[in-house]
Amino acid sequence: MVIKTAEFVKSSGKWQECPEPNIPEYAFIGRSNVGKSSLINAMMNHKDLAKTSGTPGKTQLINHFLVNENWYLTDLPGYGYAKVSKVQRKDFEKLITNYILNRRNLVNLFVLVDSRHSPQKIDLEFIQWCGESGIPFSIVFTKADKLKPNVVIKNVEDYKAELHKTWEDLPELYVTSAEKKEGGDNILNFIQKTNEF
Ligand code: GDP
Q1: Domain 6-194 of CATH type 3.40.50.300
Q2: Probe ligand 1: pick from 28, 29, 34, 38, max atoms within 8 Å of CB?
Q3: From first to last of its 197 residues, what are the pLDDT tens digits of the chain?
């Protein structure tokens, strides 16, 4: 998919405040610092469309971007930031789970995980919840350029083995590097394929 236009639409503090759900929507989520903003910017060919936030976990808003005037890219706030209070964490969990469960134009959720790490509890729990809730999602490995290719392959295989402990069918997996601008086109192809434009 060629990105002709990508523009910020709005930030929402509640799922009910999100733009009218009248076009297909694709959302991105992951732990703070996973490389979400960098990947979105790389895919959109934009330097700072999604802000790479200085303080992880601070921006707890849902950000909508209109792409090619016919689909929404949604940047969800990063989860798993330790330095927030329990109340803040609960509010935040409510914001994202309500968004995910209620957003009726959501076609797919991309769950980002750092390709350098072994499967982390918080990511596995979130993935588990997506599976149990019947949310269509894919897993995106980020920062692949930081590892040798054979290590990336091994880490992806380890991740699959972990998921296979619970699930027979696995979601689509993507390996990406925002730094090298790799892998984002596979995500965009998937979006094009699953979208009706
Ligand atoms: P976010 O909090 O998930 O939005 O993460 P950011 O996009 O702000 O990235 C967090 C840090 O990881 C920043 O220092 C980025 O420069 C770095 N980073 C993000 N993506 C990549 C990548 O693909 N390769 C490398 N080497 N660094 C990356």
Answers
A1: yes
A2: 38
A3: 999 999 999 999 999 999 999 999 999 999 989 999 999 999 999 888 887 655 555 568 999 999 999 999 999 988 876 667 788 778 888 899 999 999 999 999 999 999 999 999 999 999 999 999 999 999 999 999 999 999 999 999 999 999 999 999 999 999 999 999 999 999 999 999 998 65
Q: Please state, in angstroms and rounded to a whole number, the distance separating the CA atoms of residues 36 and 109.
A: 13
Using an 8 Å Cβ cutoff, are 18 and 104 in contact? Answer: no
Q: Does ipTM top 0.90?
A: yes
* 75, 100, 131, 160 from 52: Cα distances, Å: 11, 23, 28, 29
CA of 33 to the centre of ligand 1 (A): 6
- Is-above-0.90 flag for pTM? yes
CA 114 to ligand 1 center in whole angstroms? 10
